[in-house]
């Protein structure tokens, strides 16, 4: 007999080692889906990914620079914020096609923090923006590890529309001065709009810069419907060539990007001052919420197209990793791109190798040809951002919402106005508050009704919908369409007592149709005990039908199950009615004494 403390034979050791190795590989593949993609990579995909990556690069460069300027940091940092996040997402990202990078939906939030705190210092601006990316990345990663990917579902579609419309207006207004060729002191979207109008009336517009920017904007908007035509690239290249050949920077005062620093982004911790901590934390959390909301929606859209499953929690981890990479490598917060992702798809992208090729191509540009875009006009970059902002604005679906649910439409408008008036960060706070109020409202003031037997329809139904439904003498069937909790407990009691008081005859029994009641808290449980005593004193019995077992378990913990008695609970409404009808009226009166 072998010693139980001795080592297993070699074959068993090998089997255990292989099994442990397999478990480790599964665990690693879960957190690093890119390794799984690499392991299963098919050579036939390579040419598609390389070509798609090169096509994607033609958008990564101008868009990255444009969104950097829109976020209040120098354009070079938009390229830095493109390289590292694409590589990080290729490792951590669960989607095979999603493209991440600087995005217009985040520009207003970053700008709102960076501009007032940096005081025009570009190094301080990128430090603030980088720390916001680190905060956002940390929040996303922790939330993903804690499996909180459902958080963004708390914002309803109308509220998301309202918030994004407000962001779009804020971004659009922030770019108008660059389009017109002048600068203003930023002091909130509405004040900025007034300052822009005043500057235009005072003749501060640079006609040449405006012509270049407006022409670029027209080209982008006209070519937007043609997915295979790189409208942004055509507009940016055309504007750059025109400014360079005609020397418009010197002769007409057109503002240009200038030479980019040669070299790649270095690892750097973006230190901020103690006074910056609160706004950076708030801004970083706002960025995390918006970026994950955008990314999760876009990820699900492309997952549905490719008939694949994308884990929302891993998506949050991947977004966090991308933002951490951006923050530590001289970039700023990133999100998924609804403009660059379709370009990658249309170009034939098969895997995240497309993004890696794009990142390497951008890096090569910085190493080999940093002066290639020195004549790129600022007004053309503004046109790129304005076109993206216009694409964020949702109108058609809001029209549908207006037709079918007007109060939700007006909630959306309130969110839009809140962002436009208060600013991006305050606006997202308002959106979250409105979302919570919207969530609570249906439970706070829910629908309730009395049920009756309708002719020709099986079961018991709302007497408001079926006015010809007849009631059973002495019996009230009361339905409450919401969970019972502290905010609606008193209303529930009032409506039950009103139903008893409004009954045409004497009431012997009230049955709460409890199937829609999904929860009961301590406050509502105490209310039920009080209601039971009130009804008993009035000679009315209290029963419950169709109550879910988890809710019934709570009543047992609260002591109400024993207090009401097991006979007060019925599996169906029919069973409760049958039990009532089987007892003579005298028995009902005796029970309720």
Total number of strands: 8
Overall number of structural domains? 2
* Relative strand content: 5-15%
pLDDT < 50 stretches = 1-22, 586-590
Largest sheet: 6 strands, mixed
Question: What is the number of helices?
Answer: 25
Report how far the terminal alpha carbons are from each other.
Answer: 77 Å
What best-fitting shape do the alpha-carbon axes yield?
Answer: elongated
Structural class: mainly alpha
Computed CA radius of gyration, to the nearest angstrom: 31 Å
| Portion of residues within helices | 55-70%
Quaternary state, please?
single chain
Strands side by side in the biggest sheet: 4-3-5-6-7-8
Mean pLDDT: 85
Descriptors:
593 residues; mainly alpha; 2 domains; 6-stranded mixed β-sheet; two-stranded antiparallel sheet; 8 strands; disordered N terminus
List the helices and strands and how they pair.
Layout: H1 10-31, H2 33-39, H3 46-70, H4 76-92, E1 100-101, H5 104-118, H6 122-145, H7 157-180, H8 189-201, H9 207-223, H10 231-246, H11 248-251, H12 277-306, H13 312-328, E2 335-336, H14 340-346, H15 353-368, H16 378-392, H17 396-404, H18 406-422, H19 424-444, E3 448-453, E4 460-462, E5 475-480, H20 489-501, E6 509-513, H21 522-537, E7 541-545, H22 549-558, H23 560-564, E8 569-570, H24 573-582, H25 585-591
Parallel strand pairs: 5-6, 6-7, 7-8
Antiparallel strand pairs: 1-2, 3-4, 3-5
Helix pairs in contact: 1-2, 3-4, 3-14, 3-15, 3-16, 4-13, 4-15, 5-6, 5-7, 5-12, 6-12, 6-13, 7-8, 7-16, 7-18, 7-19, 9-10, 9-16, 12-13, 17-18, 18-19, 20-21
């Amino acid at each position: 007999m072998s010693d139980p403390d001795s080592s297993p034979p070699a074959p068993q050791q090998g089997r255990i080692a292989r099994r442990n190795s397999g478990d480790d590989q599964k665990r690693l593949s879960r957190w690093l889906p890119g390794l799984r993609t690499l392991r299963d990579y098919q050579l036939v995909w390579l040419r598609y990914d390389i070509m798609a990556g090169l096509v994607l690069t033609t958008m990564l460069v101008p868009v990255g620079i444009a969104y950097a300027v829109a976020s209040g940091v120098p354009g070079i940092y938009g390229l830095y914020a493109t390289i590292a996040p694409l590589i990080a997402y290729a490792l951590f990202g669960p989607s095979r096609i999603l493209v991440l990078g600087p995005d217009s939906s985040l520009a207003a939030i970053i700008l709102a923090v960076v501009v007032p705190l940096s005081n025009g210092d570009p190094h301080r601006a990128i430090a603030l923006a980088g720390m916001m990316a680190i905060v956002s990345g940390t929040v996303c990663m922790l939330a993903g590890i804690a499996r909180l990917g459902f958080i963004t579902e708390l914002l309803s579609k109308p509220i998301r529309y309202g918030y994004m419309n407000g962001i779009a207006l804020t971004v659009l207004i922030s770019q108008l001065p660059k389009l017109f060729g002048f600068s203003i002191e930023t002091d909130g979207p509405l004040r900025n709009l007034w300052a822009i109008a005043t500057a235009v009336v005072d003749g501060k517009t640079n006609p040449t810069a405006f012509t270049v920017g407006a022409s670029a904007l027209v080209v982008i908007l006209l070519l937007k419907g043609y997915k295979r035509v790189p409208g942004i690239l055509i507009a940016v290249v055309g504007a750059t060539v025109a400014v360079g050949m005609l020397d418009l920077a010197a002769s007409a005062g057109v503002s240009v990007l200038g030479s980019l620093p040669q070299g790649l982004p270095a690892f750097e911790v973006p230190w901020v001052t103690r006074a910056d901590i609160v706004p950076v934390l708030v801004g970083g959390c706002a960025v995390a919420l918006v970026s994950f909301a955008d990314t999760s929606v876009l990820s699900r859209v492309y997952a549905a197209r490719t008939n694949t499953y994308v884990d929302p929690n891993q998506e949050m981890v991947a977004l966090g990793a991308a933002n951490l990479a951006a923050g530590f490598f001289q970039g700023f917060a990133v999100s998924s791109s609804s403009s660059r992702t379709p370009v990658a798809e249309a170009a034939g992208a098969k895997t995240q190798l497309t993004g890696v090729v794009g990142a390497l191509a951008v890096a090569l540009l910085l190493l080999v040809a940093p002066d290639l875009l020195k004549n790129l006009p600022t007004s053309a970059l503004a046109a790129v951002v304005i076109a993206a902002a216009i694409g964020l604005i949702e109108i058609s679906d809001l029209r549908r919402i207006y037709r079918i649910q007007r109060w939700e439409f007006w909630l959306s408008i309130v969110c839009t106005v809140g962002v436009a008036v208060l600013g991006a960060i305050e606006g997202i706070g308002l959106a979250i508050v409105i979302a919570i109020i919207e969530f609570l409202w249906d439970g706070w003031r829910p629908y309730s009704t009395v049920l009756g037997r309708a002719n020709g329809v099986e079961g018991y139904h709302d007497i408001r919908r079926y006015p010809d439904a007849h009631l059973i003498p002495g019996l009230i069937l009361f339905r409450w369409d919401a969970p019972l909790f502290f905010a609606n407990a008193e209303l529930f009691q009032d409506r039950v007592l009103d139903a008893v008081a409004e009954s045409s005859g004497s009431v012997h029994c009230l049955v709460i149709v409890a199937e829609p009641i999904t929860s009961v808290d301590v406050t509502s449980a105490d209310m039920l005990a009080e209601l039971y005593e009130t009804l008993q004193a009035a000679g009315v019995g209290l029963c419950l039908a169709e109550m879910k077992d988890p809710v019934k378990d709570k009543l047992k913990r609260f002591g109400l199950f024993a207090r009401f008695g097991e006979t007060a609970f019925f599996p169906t409404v029919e069973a409760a009615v049958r039990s009532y009808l089987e007892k003579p009226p005298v028995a009902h009166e005796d029970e309720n004494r």
